[in-house]
């Protein structure tokens, strides 16, 4: 355990040195300007915060924070520091937090804001901070989603579902992901086939999005996003990408983490099984450093994660040999049949 912690610490220090070689450390509680594509490091004494002032521009603002000896928390405050607009805490994945938001909606107003970075109570440490901007796109309801496209949209009360078309691929699987942006919004997500028949639907107050792997097929499919029991306008983000592939070595997975999804990865090759225990047959192998989308979990026999495979079937991987990446809160609980 000590060796692992040392390796993680050294890795973080290398990252910090590499991306911040020409930046000076900032003392906690001082407010320093940070611009897009800037990098900063900051020492955070116990129970204090590092504060950065920045001006929000049109697009998707991404704040990345790496902690050294601390699990950081990140919040976006108004210029007066009287209101928290967005916040994120992720102490379980390599002491790294990624806060991402699209200001094309009304979640954040343009203008000056404050990034506040803190550590756990009573613990001091250091952090590296990076601020970047990605172009945002909004797709009108009824339009066709293109492969590789990412966009934001919203559903209004009384306006019916937001429905989009997308074309299936006859040669490979497709991954379509929907992620809620509005706090508390659990969208009802439906995928329909070429005949308008529902092939899958997620409708749960505990699920803030959905991800599907569509088998190779032909024709235009539909994606419908509705408010469900949510009474206000709900904003969401959509991505359409190629599904996971089988590599030349026979292992499966994405080469990079899919956007807008919870995924898992491993430092070594691990077996994918037909159910959540070692008593089930192996149905594939997750490649070292590759990623698969997590669609649920089971605690029937320790904790196992359900993942979407290249053929659109479901596999299971033990939590003890993997780590989660992305937005993994509120994963649905799933069950599986015992081995026959």
What does this protein structure show overall?
The structure is a single chain. This protein has about 350 residues and is mostly beta strands. The protein has 1 helix and 28 strands. It has a 5-stranded mixed sheet with strand order 1-3-10-5-8, covered by helices on one side. A hairpin with a 5-residue loop joins strand 26 and strand 27. The longest helix is centred in the N-terminal third of the chain and has 18 residues. The N terminus is likely disordered.
Concise summary:
With 340 residues, the chain is mostly beta strands. 5% of the residues lie in helices and 46% in strands. The protein has one helix at residues 2-19, and strands spanning 25-27, 31-33, 39-44, 49-56, 60-68, 73-78, 84-89, 96-102, 111-118, 125-134, 144-145, 150-155, 162-167, 174-180, 188-192, 198-202, 209-214, 220-226, 234-242, 245-246, 252-253, 262-265, 270-273, 282-286, 291-298, 304-308, 314-318, 323-326.
